[in-house]
Each structure stands twice: as C-alpha cells, then as structure tokens.
Amino acid sequence: MGPLWFLFVSFLFVAAASGAAVLALWLISSERAKSPSKTASAIALGISSAWAFCATGFGYLSIPAQLLLSASYLAWLWLLYRLFGDDDRDKKLAPIRPVVASLALVELLHLATLLTLFNHLGNSAQAQVIGHFVVIFRLLFCVGALVLVHNLYAGAEQQARQSLRWPAAAMGAMWLYDLNFYTIAYLLNQPPELLAQLRAMALLAAVVLLAVGSLRNESELKFRPSRTFAFQSFSLLVIGTYLVVMVVVAQAISYAGNAYAPTMQAVFILAASVVALAVLPSPKLRRWLRVMVSKHLFQHRYDYRTEWLRFTDTIGRAGPQAPPLPQRIVQAVADVTDSPAGLLLTPLDEGGLALAARWQWSTIEVPGVAVCCESARFFEQSQFILDLDDLRAGREQDIPQGAYPDWLFEDERAWAVVPLVHYERLVGLVVLARPPLARQLDWEDFDLLRVVGRQLASYLAEHASQDALGEAQRFDEFNRRIAFVMHDIKNLASQLSLLARNAELHADKPEFRADMLLTLRNSTDKLQGLLARLGRYGAQSGAVREQIDLAALIRSVAGQYSARHEVIATKHPTCFIEANTEALEQALVHLVQNAIEASASNSPVTLDLRVEQGTAIIEVADNGVGMSPEFIRTHLFKPFHSSKPGGFGIGAFEAREMIRAMGGRLDVESREGQGTRFLLRLPTSTAAAAQSDINDVNAEVA
Question: Which pLDDT belongs to residue 189?
Fold first, then answer.
C-alpha cells in the first residue's frame, strides 16, 4: 500500500472519530435532538470515537484499539436494549433480556480469549486455536445482534418505526460489515487486511444514519446546530486535522528509511505535543475560533436566547455576595461584547454625568463631571452608540466633540459608549473597555446593545424610584420624630402652667421659690435647645439676605475650633456677597465638622477663599480618609445615610440645600485615602447686582 492509500485510510478513521464525537456532544447538549435514547447513543458514539482515534494512532489491530472496540460493542448493545425499553416492549417480550445478557457474555468471552491470544503470540499453534475462538465469539455476537435489530424494527408499531429506522439501520450497517469481516477471517485463518483498513467506513455510515435520525423533524430536515455545538465541532475539526498532520508527517519520516528515522519521529512528536499544549489551551485562540464560527457558520453573530438568559441572570443576581445594581448593569452590557471592564455614568442634579460605578476598571481617571450637559443631551436625543475606534480612525465625522471628552478619547482602552434611555430620557451611559479580540461594531451589535440599554435603563429608573420612595418614607419618619419633639414642648408648657398656678398659692414660701427657679432654668434650657434644633430646618435659610464679608466669616468659623482642632483660614482680601449669615455659617460649620471627623487629630483642615469670574469659591479641604465615587453618588447627599452612630445623616444634605437657597452650588471632589475638597460657589455682590439689573431690563422690555 502506498502513501496515498495510507492517507485515505487515516482520513477515514479521523473523519469517523470526529463525526462520532461531534454527534455525541450534540446529543448531550442540544435540546432539539430527536434521537430516542440519546444518552445511550451519545455513550456508544463517544466510545466508538475513542476506538477510531486509538486505531489511527496505535493501529487497528493494537491491544488498546481492540479493547475499545469491545467496549463499543457493549455500548451499542446497551443502546439496542434501551431502544426496546423506549418502545415499552422490554416488559412484554421476556426473551429480550436473556438474549441481551447472553450477547454481553459472548462479548466478554471474546475479550478474555483476545487477551489470552495476546499472551500466546509466541506459540503459533496455540495462537491459531485461540484465534479461531476469538473469531467465533465475534461471529456469534454479530449474528445475535443482527437478529435483535431485526426484531426491534419489524416488531415495532408503524408510528414507532419512524424514529427507530435510523438507529436500527446504523447498528445493522456496523454489525453486518463485521459479520462479513469475521466470516472471511474465519475462512482465511487471518484478518482480511483490506476490510480491517476500511472498518472506519462502517462507523462513518452509522454516524451519518444516526445524525439523520436525530435531526429529522417529520417532513423537513434542517441542520440547525447550537453555537456551543458548532464551536465544539470546529475545535474537534482542528484537533482532528492536527492529529492527521502529525500521523502523516511521522509516517513520512519512517518511509525515509534512514538510520535516524526513529529519532526524528520521536523529536517531531515531542515538538508537536509541546506546540499543542502551548497553543490549544490559549484563551485568545478560543476567542478567535468563536469569532470565526459565528462569522462563517451562522446568519447572526449572537445566540439571542443565550444572551438573554445571561443578561437576566446577571441583573437578577441577589444576595449579600452580589455586587450592587450599578455594577451589574455595567457587567450585563460588557458581557454582550466580551468587554473585560466598564464604567457607569449617571446624571447629576446640576446637569451633566458623573461616575456612578466601576466594574473591573480601577485605573482610569474620571473627573467629577465626566460628561457635560451638551454631550448628555446629544446621547439623549440621538440614542447613538459611539464606537471610539471609529472616531480615532476618522471613520466617524458627525459626532460633536463634547460627546467624547478628552479623558475618554485619550484612553486607548476605552472602546464604546452605550446610552441608557428610558422614556426618551437619558438615565445613564455605559463606557466599555476594549475586548481582548477587538472588532468594529456593526448593525447587529448596535441593535442588541440598544435593546439591552433600554432594558437596563428601566431597571436603573426603577432603582431610582425606589430610592426616592425610601427617601420619602424616611422624611415621614423624620416628621414623626418632630411630633415627639412637639410632645416634649407640650410637656414643658404644661409644667410651666402648673408652676404658674402653684405660684399663686405658695409664692411666699422660700422652698417653693427655690424649686420654681430651678424648674424655670431647666425648662428654659430645654426650650432653647429645642428651638435651636428646630430653627435649622426652617424655610428661612435663604430668605433674609445681607452683605457678608466672606473673609471675616471664614476666620470666625476657623476660630470656633481653635481649642479642639487645627483649622487654617488662608488670608484673602475682603469679598462681599449677599446671603443669609446664619445659614451660610451653619453650612460651613457642617462641612468643617465633617472634615475634622474624617481627619487624624494632627491633620489640619484648610479653609480657602478665591474669586473666579464673579463667583466666590470657598474651599473646605482635608487630608482624611476620603470617599469613593460610589459613596458620593449614592449616600453623601442623601438624607438619613449616616456613618456615625445615632446620626441623622442630614448634615451634607442640609448644607447643600442652604447653599442652593442662596443661589449657589456645592461640589465635592474626593479620593479614598487622599482626602476631600468641598467647593461652595456663591455669586459675589457685583455679579448678583449685574444679574439683577439684567433681569430688571428684561422685565421693562417685556
């Protein structure tokens, strides 16, 4: 036999092995498989595949190949019995079980005599006698198995035959081929070489027949494999091709016939094994295979059923170990494109977008206002999914520059921006990192990301609604607390009323006068404390305004803490604004107190004042523990979120509301472990007067 014949035989065995393995994997993984007893079919196909691979590598007459062939016989016999069971005839036909058990015993006897034959190959006379028994046992098995296959199909009802014909034909083809093979072997006293080399054709025919029966669906026959099955099949094809190439090259080296052929074969097999171990497990190779399979074998890139199941699993994850919803939102979008990391940007109260969550992306620097108001308006109106690689390559020209700020555009890892729109309102942006195998986004990516973005926007809006409802409930609880305070005031009033009535009767007694003075003093202190607390939550925070020297006010606030903590007020010329003195001082006290509590005892707090374009900016800075962007976004300015035991958690919220009531703004910049800066922005008296004049002119013109 020449090299071409050897290549043809090797191809038959590899094709049969690969086909059997692929069909076995599909029967196990696919829900569309129509094959009866598909688990038993998958087991039989898997063992037959192992036999074919072993026969390719070690030879079809080798000990491992013969052992696996016997195992495959037993597996196919088990499939035959399971087919009788699916037809409910194993209970009606009592002789079936004894026949199956007898055939299994015959195969075990064949295996025992085969092992005995391998132990007596040196004695030709004994080997010839044992070889006759080996062939006879296998002939008995093939005849009995073919009889059972005939009974399986002939005795089935007409309706059941539709599903039984294909597995019956598959097993009949294999055992009929083996019956001829062992008959000739018995007559010739040796295995027929040609039929042994073509044994893989019987297995290949069985695989084709079983595949047709598994994929057949009444009147139509369509091959619709799952993506997992296609990827596994493609991987098996790669492995099979690698195996064929390795065997062919090894045999070609042996045909060279020189003295170094065995050494060259060993070196080649070692090198090929090292290459396989280095390349085949590579995640990059698997991703490339997945992309190639999706691109060339399927009409659509995505398996939408799988994507939606993964999406719902990510979003619906609950429990103490589950990440917060904003992080799960980023992960849900990133999973679609295999992105390894991402960010979530959500709207600020003053406009623009800020960082709300990170997912596996701690290195990127995000400013306080990540995206400006104009950019947010662009994404809200257009719902455009931005591919940053298109911008960098100049393929996209019609995008306003504000839609991709410098911090995002200059980071090469940033890849795509997906808007989350709910009822035509932008509730967030997801920034995706570049996947390991980057590609240009197309219409299918845009459609799927847009649908996923709308769904996630509804989750995010619902989450915000729940937070607002919880906040309203906490305000209700706060109102109930105020009711208790009013009850205390009522009790104090009752005490004073009783004291006044008793004074008319006992005013002349020294003991009563002493007790009256003590009661009055205690009641007065309690009332003053209650009034001071209640006055902070009134509506007069920005009502009464006056000219305030900010430099003097900052020095005054810093002086209040001179005995407790070092508060440094930088020197600044006189700067006047129009505001409510008590409210502004109270807001500064809140922020300074928070900065002191976040700092070490020897770490000073700094109060700075500067003027920029008609706006006075007061900066309260510390070098304390700092805050994460997530805490700033979700807790800092939310009432009743306090990290201090017994605290109401309304200090920062109250300070921001008082600053807003005076026409100003309160911003915060913080990094964990590096400290925090609060920036109070208030219009100076000149700017406020100019704005007032403009308003008056506009009113006169109107």
Answer: 78
Q: What is the pLDDT of residue 471?
A: 78
Quote the CA–CA distance of 532 and 431 in Å, as a whole number.
48
Question: Are residues 604 and 556 located together in one domain of the fold?
Answer: yes
What does DSSP assign to residue 3? H
Same domain, 92 and 123: yes
Q: Across the strands, what pairs with 579?
A: 546
User: How many structural domains compose the chain?
Assistant: 5
Evaluated on CA atoms 317, 323, 324, 328, the torsion sign reads: negative
CATH number reported for the structural domain that contains residue 354 in this entry: 3.30.450.40
Cβ-contact 34, 49 below 8 angstroms: no
Give CA–CA dist 404/372, Å, rounded: 10
Whether 259 and 197 map to the same domain: the answer is no
Q: Are residues 290 and 372 in the same domain?
A: no
Q: Mark which of 220, 245, 272 sits at the end of a domain.
A: 220
Alpha helices, DSSP H, located in 155-282:
158-188, 193-197, 199-215, 227-256, 261-279
| 471 vs 459: CA distance, rounded Å | 18
Range of the domain at 268: 225-299
Indicate the pairing of strand 605-612 with strand 567-569.
parallel
Q: Which residues contact residue 407 at a Cβ distance below 8 angstroms, ignoring those fewer than 6 apart?
A: 364, 365, 366, 367, 370
The first and second tokens of residue 471, run together, are 């906040």
Same-domain check for residues 166 and 210: yes
Distances (CA, A) of 383 to 112, 376, 377, 387: 73, 10, 10, 13
- Mean pLDDT in consecutive groups of 10 residues from the start of the chain, 702 residues: 75 86 83 67 89 83 85 88 63 65 86 80 71 82 82 68 80 85 79 81 87 60 44 50 54 54 56 56 55 52 78 83 89 91 90 90 88 89 89 79 84 92 92 86 85 91 83 74 63 70 77 76 70 54 73 87 80 85 83 86 90 89 86 75 55 82 89 90 69 46 44
d(CA 144, CA 154): 15
Give pLDDT tens digits for 495-511: 677 677 777 777 778 87
Domain's final residue, options 480, 513, 535: 535
CA-based radius of gyration for the chain = 42
State the Cα–Cα distance between residues 155 and 233, nearest whole angstrom: 36
Residue 205 lies in a domain: yes
In a domain, 131, yes or no: yes
pLDDT, tens digit (0-9, with 9 covering 90-100), for 49-82: 898 888 887 877 788 888 888 898 899 888 888 8
Clarify whether residues 461 and 391 are in a common domain: yes
Q: Do 79 and 195 reside in the same domain of the chain?
A: yes
